[in-house]
Amino acid sequence: MLRETLHPWVVKERARQEAEKMESEEPLSFNERFELAQLRQKNAQLEKDVAFLKKAAAFFASEENR
After folding, report:
1. For residue 25, which phi and psi values (nearest 5 degrees)?
2. Each residue of 5-61: pLDDT tens digit?
3. Which residues contact 61 (CB under 8 A, 6 or more apart)?
4. Which of 3, 35, 38, 52 is least surrounded by CB atoms within 10 angstroms?
5. What is residue 34's predicted lDDT score, i.e. its pLDDT?
6. What is the C-alpha separation between 28 and 23, in angstroms, rounded?
7. Are 28 and 36 in contact (CB under 8 A)?
8. What is the pTM of this model?
9. Handedness of CA 23, 26, 31, 32 (dihedral sign)
10. Positive or negative: CA dihedral 21, 16, 19, 42
11. Helices in the chain by DSSP H: which ranges?
12. What does the buried/exposed string (b/e) look like for 32-41 if buried means 16 or more CB atoms within 10 Å of the residue's CB?
């Protein structure tokens, strides 16, 4: 119950803080944008790896229980 009550407020506050931070910061340089793109790609790959490993772990756990 508490989570449903606070969650919308937390999301709204985080968005407000992020918008405020964006206004006060200077734009990213070319190198920063390039690095950010690389980090996003690496993060996406790591998320895929984690998803695969979870499936593999579940598969082997189900095989062990047979």
Report:
1. -95, 155
2. 888 888 899 999 888 877 777 888 999 999 999 999 999 999 999 999 999 999 999
3. none
4. 3
5. 97
6. 12
7. yes
8. 0.56
9. negative
10. positive
11. 2-24, 30-64
12. eeeeeeeeee
Residue 64 phi, psi dihedral angles, 5° rounding: -70, -30
Give residue 1's pLDDT: 64
Residue in this structure with the two tokens 């998803």, named with its chain if needed: 51
Provide the residue type at 37 as one letter. A
Taking CB atoms within 8 Å and a gap of at least 24, the contacts of 40-43 are: none
Cα–chain-centroid distance for residue 63? 31
